[in-house]
Amino acid sequence: MAENKEERRERLRAMAAEFEARGDTLGWFEAFYKESAGDIDQIPWADLEPNSYFRAWAESTGLKGDGRKALVVGCGLGDDAKYLHDLGFEVTAFDISPTAIEWAKKLYGDADIQFETADLFAPPQNWVGGFDFVLEIYTIQPLPLQMRPQVIDAISAFVASKGKLVVVTRGREDDVEPDVLPWPMSRQDLSRFLEKGLTQTDFVVMPPVDEDEPPRFVVEYVRNSTSS
Ligand SMILES: C[S@@+](CC[C@H](N)C(=O)[O-])C[C@H]1O[C@@H](n2cnc3c(N)ncnc32)[C@H](O)[C@@H]1O
Fold first, then answer.
1. Ligand 1 pocket list (CB less than 6 A)
2. Ligand 1 center from residue 67 Cα (angstroms)
3. Which atom of ligand 1 is closest in space to residue 168's alpha carbon?
4. 139, 148, 151, 209: residue to mutate for ligand 1 pocket, most atoms within 8 A of CB
């Protein structure tokens, strides 16, 4: 299974490069989900469980929804959306891949979760500043490094005044050059969230579950004002 995971990572790197070469940077996500043909073992980031780093953080902080509005960015198959739903959030979850969203609906369609196909860079207008809690897990890191500021700006824009954002990502030191997709994030990369009117309220470094992997950063921000 771990071997298959590495093979699938190699496959997605090749697909990302192919699509990029023909000027369609984001197209490989849908192609990859489609090619996986409903077999969860073909999706390296999917395991039908909430992200274990996020869950550890949520349990340690006693996260509760209390009916607050949450948005899950790049939700994939929807496991984290379901987790937030179970914690009592009113959840909207979106992904650029229609196949991923259909799959998420099959898995979690019985829960009252709004699953939508949407592009982070062209979201419905009413999502801007529309959420009390925004969750971003592993969507920034597979996108090209030169897009990173643009991605961070787009994610920041969803956070309502007084709202929170939690980012879970592979982490790296500022002076280490990332060499392979998924490109881990540095503290320097993350500092752009602070330029978008967010204040960092927690920063936890977690050891990786697989020892060959980079550590994970779980970072919490709050928007103190209506500034963006
Ligand atoms: C590495 S996967 C992580 C999925 C999920 N967050 C998880 O942890 O299981 C990245 C996800 O981001 C989605 N994605 C990439 N670019 C996007 C965009 N511009 N707008 C919305 N979703 C996007 C992909 O389709 C993919 O499902």
1. 26, 29, 45-46, 51, 74-76, 95-97, 100, 119-121, 137-139, 142
2. 25
3. 8
4. 139
* Architecture field, domain 48-223: 3-Layer(aba) Sandwich (3.40)
Q: At what angle do helices 98-108 and 27-36 cross, to 10 degrees?
A: 50
Average pLDDT, the chain: 96
Rg (CA), the chain: 17
Q: 14-54 pLDDT, tens per residue?
A: 999 999 999 999 999 999 999 999 999 999 999 999 999 99
pTM: 0.97
Rounded (10°) angle between helices 52-61 and 79-86: 20
Of the candidates 78, 135, 85, 80, the one whose C-alpha atom is nearest the C-alpha of residue 106 is 78
* 75 CA to centre of ligand 1 in angstroms: 6
Q: For residue 46, which atom of ligand 1 is closest to its CA? A: 9
